[in-house]
């Protein structure tokens, strides 16, 4: 995760999270050509059911004849689906601030799926507007694919890669591991289901949209959209290694352009390393931050129809951004966050568009993949002659990345090491570490064993996530997925962590040398989540990222070892063992958050009534605000629909010109009294034409008598933009 994490929260998650959540309260198979290329799609229509939920309806009739590649090298398909979770009263994922709970929507979150196949194999790449892809999500999506007779013959966990953009402005509570649900009052099933169903649907759409096509690749440098936020750690790397690179962050953007054989542009995906943390921890509106906005801008340019089953899809995927901030102006201040987000988003959009438009180098070669599970809690690493460690988060974890979004109170400073906790020179920190360690040692003796402490070397463990447990399961996953997806002469390395700049460079270089591919990219935050991955040298300084490198000082060497095995297997055409299967912890989940009890409105009012009407006229560029009597958005998240529509009059009809996914609008929920809800809608009229408009709000309310949930709508008076 990132940056700001309340020290008190982290400490309570430590010592006791025992007490914390006992009650509950970012951190950073070969088949014939025709059989495998199979079903391109069935006739479908997308509708909204009576609850406003987006449904994918199939006629049940698939194409009788599998698509032929013809003269094209690949089958290509894209799909996009809404994954926007509860827009009120759910803790947000990323900053681990208990006070940061959703209160509305700035932009919707999306799952963007890409399927590419050749004559024998297919791979799936998904970029989702999420803080992380937790193991629970990959497991649940894999189950849905396995249960789908149309998808199961072609896709398994081995050739499906799920990656998160790492927005810090989405609802959380969708992990199956304790640490990552600690600040969301446990597991939030509503959010989990929306995410799983949306990712699955985007893959289904991509599958049904498969057509013969070509892929083009391009690369370029984006030099003014990021900076290193952990220079102290980066500079610990050998000077000879650092001098090989032009900057202390990766500035290369890699773009894929997907085009159908008939010339139709299908989609774009790019990888560029930068944290989506322009929007800081004071924000309570759901959104995709700079990467989500960049996707919106690209898709708007290409005329994307978010309600269509077939449309252009543009993903701004994440790479080795573990120590890379977009906050060129200093930490997010809660005042200029969105303006700065817009700048960084536009820089990524403009660079991606330029590379896309000039892309003329075709991707060539076979499609392939390798996937395995590895237990990182005690993995022997031959290159260093020792093992990794059961997971643990260091003292500096509590400081957050102060260069990015500073914490209000430091419990420990960044750079806190075993040696710095000296009773003579640093008695206060030494006492805190000793007290916490002793308290945790009573509960989990393994956390204070000499072998555990020595294994983590410079790191004084604050939260022993690999040995602490309430139910027999560790607080973070010990078994993690390692995966390489090969699309012609491009290799995509799926790493389940936030990868520092130099750590990413080392793994990328290793794999590229083994596979001898022209292009290699890191897809960070993929398939699972284990916090950070730094180099051994960076780890020694115990900055926030090093303290969050869970499996100890040899974690990167372990990754290099395991990725080397996969790369060698791909090069030689050999298989790899599947590895130990991670446990499914579905039945171990608990939530301490109540659902919606009931909704109400004042006497003589109805749901959807307007509390505050817009003014009759506005000048172009003004912001229009209206307030409605509404209900709790948890009643129905309106997947594929919208809580807010801006409608423009065209003669006797009205046309929707903006929805709650558009950055020109905001939808904000606020509790009023015990069961009343006020909905504030805001619309920025900049770039919209003069004319007559109105605002529509829709939602669902829950009866306190019957528990029934019913739809409602409200519309403002007309107003003009002059």
Task: Describe the overall structure.
With 722 residues, this protein is α+β, with helices and mostly antiparallel strands. Helix 13 packs parallel to helix 16 (555-572). The chain is built from 16 helices and 36 strands. Residues 3-65 have low confidence and may be disordered. Strands 3, 6, 7, 8, 10, 12, 13, 14 and 16 form a nine-stranded mixed sheet that branches. Strands 28, 30, 31, 34, 35 and 36 form a six-stranded mixed sheet that branches. The two termini are 45 Å apart.
Write a short abstract of this structure.
The chain is an alpha+beta fold. Helices cover about 25% and strands about 25% of the residues.
Number of strands: 36
Low-pLDDT runs of 5+ residues are 3-65
Distance between the termini: 45 Å
Q: What proportion of the residues is helical, as a percent range? A: 10-25%
Radius of gyration from the alpha-carbon trace, in angstroms = 25 Å
| Mean of all residue-level pLDDT scores | 91
Tell me what portion of residues adopts beta-strand conformation. Answer: 25-35%
Class based on secondary structure composition and strand pairing: alpha+beta
For the sheet with most strands, the description reads:
9 strands, mixed
Q: Can you tell me the overall shape? A: globular
Counting H and I runs of at least 4 residues, what is the number of helices? Answer: 16
List the helices and strands and how they pair.
Elements: H1 7-14, H2 17-23, H3 33-37, E1 42-48, E2 54-62, E3 74-82, E4 92-93, E5 104-105, E6 110-117, E7 122-128, H4 135-146, E8 160-164, E9 170-171, H5 178-181, H6 189-208, E10 211-221, E11 227-228, H7 231-234, H8 239-242, E12 252-260, E13 265-271, H9 289-301, E14 313-317, E15 324-325, H10 337-358, E16 361-362, E17 367-375, E18 380-381, E19 386-387, E20 393-394, H11 427-443, H12 450-455, E21 461-463, E22 479-487, E23 490-494, E24 498-499, H13 501-515, E25 519-523, E26 532-533, H14 536-541, H15 544-547, H16 555-572, E27 610-612, E28 617-618, E29 623-630, E30 644-650, E31 653-659, E32 665-672, E33 676-684, E34 691-702, E35 709-715, E36 719-721
Helix pairs in contact: 1-2, 4-6, 9-10, 13-16
């Amino acid at each position: 995760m990132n940056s700001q994490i309340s020290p008190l929260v982290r400490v309570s998650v430590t010592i006791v999270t025992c007490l914390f959540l006992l009650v509950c309260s970012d951190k950073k198979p070969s088949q014939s050509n025709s059989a495998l290329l199979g079903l391109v799609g069935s006739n479908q229509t997308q509708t909204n059911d009576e609850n406003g939920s987006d449904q994918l309806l199939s006629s049940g009739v698939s194409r009788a004849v599998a698509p032929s590649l013809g003269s094209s090298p690949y089958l290509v398909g894209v799909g996009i689906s809404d994954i926007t979770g509860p827009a009120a009263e759910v803790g947000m994922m990323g900053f681990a601030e208990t006070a940061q709970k959703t209160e509305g929507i700035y932009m919707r979150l999306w799952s963007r799926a890409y399927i590419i196949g050749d004559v024998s194999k297919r791979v799936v790449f998904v970029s989702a507007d999420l803080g992380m892809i937790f193991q629970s999500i990959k497991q649940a999506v894999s189950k849905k694919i396995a249960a789908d007779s149309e998808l199961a013959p072609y896709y398994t966990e081995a050739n499906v890669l799920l990656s998160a953009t790492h927005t810090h402005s989405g609802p959380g509570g969708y992990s199956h591991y304790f640490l990552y649900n600690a600040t969301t009052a446990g597991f939030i099933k509503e959010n989990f289901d929306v995410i799983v169903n949306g990712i699955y649907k985007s893959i289904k759409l991509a599958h049904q949209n498969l057509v013969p096509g070509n892929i083009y690749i391009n690369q370029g440098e984006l030099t003014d959209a990021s900076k290193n936020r952990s220079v102290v750690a980066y500079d610990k790397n050998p000077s000879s290694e650092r001098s090989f690179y032009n900057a202390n962050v990766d500035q290369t953007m890699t773009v894929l352009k997907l085009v159908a054989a008939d010339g139709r542009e299908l989609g774009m995906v790019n990888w560029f390393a930068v944290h989506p943390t322009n929007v800081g921890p004071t924000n309570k509106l759901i959104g995709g931050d700079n990467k989500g906005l960049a996707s919106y801008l690209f898709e708007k340019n290409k005329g994307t129809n978010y309600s269509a089953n077939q449309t252009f899809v543009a993903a701004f995927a994440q790479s080795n951004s573990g120590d890379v901030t977009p906050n060129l102006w200093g930490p997010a201040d809660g005042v200029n966050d969105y303006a700065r987000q817009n700048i960084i988003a536009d820089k990524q959009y403009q660079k991606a568009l330029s590379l896309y438009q000039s892309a003329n180098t075709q991707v060539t070669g076979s499609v392939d993949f390798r996937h395995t599970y590895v237990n990182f809690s005690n993995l022997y690493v031959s290159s260093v002659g020792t093992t990794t460690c059961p997971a643990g988060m260091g003292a500096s974890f509590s400081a957050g990345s102060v260069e990015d979004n500073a914490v209000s109170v430091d419990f420990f400073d960044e750079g806190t090491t075993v040696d710095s906790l000296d009773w003579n020179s640093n008695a206060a920190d030494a006492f805190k570490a000793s007290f916490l360690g002793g308290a945790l040692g009573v509960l989990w003796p393994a956390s204070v064993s000499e072998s555990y402490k020595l294994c983590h070397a410079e790191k004084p463990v604050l939260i022993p996530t690999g040995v602490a447990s309430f139910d027999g399961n560790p607080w973070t996953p010990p078994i993690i997925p390692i995966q390489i997806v090969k699309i012609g002469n491009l290799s995509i390395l799926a790493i389940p962590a936030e990868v520092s700049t130099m750590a990413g460079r080392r793994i990328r270089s290793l794999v590229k040398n083994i596979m001898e591919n022209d292009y290699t990219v890191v897809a960070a935050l993929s398939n699972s989540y284990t916090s950070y991955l730094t180099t051994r040298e960076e780890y020694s300084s115990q900055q926030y990222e090093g303290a969050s490198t869970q499996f100890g000082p040899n974690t990167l060497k372990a990754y290099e070892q395991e990725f080397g095995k996969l790369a060698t297997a791909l090069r030689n055409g050999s298989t790899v063992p599947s590895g130990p299967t991670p446990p499914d912890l579905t039945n171990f989940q608990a939530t301490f958050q109540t659902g919606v009890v009931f909704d109400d409105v004042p006497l003589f009012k109805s749901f959807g009534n307007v509390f505050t009407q817009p003014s009759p006229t506005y000048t172009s560029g003004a912001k229009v605000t209206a307030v409605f009597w509404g209900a709790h958005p948890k009643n129905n998240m309106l997947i594929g629909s919208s809580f807010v529509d801006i409608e423009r009059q065209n003669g006797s009809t009205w046309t929707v010109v903006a929805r709650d996914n558009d950055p020109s609008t905001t939808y904000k929920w606020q509790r009023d009294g015990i069961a009343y809800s006020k909905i504030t809608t805001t619309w920025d009229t900049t770039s919209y034409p003069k004319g007559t408009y109105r605002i529509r709000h829709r939602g669902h309310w829950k009866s306190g008598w019957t528990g029934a949930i019913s739809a409602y709508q409200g519309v403002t008076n007309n107003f003009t933009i002059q």
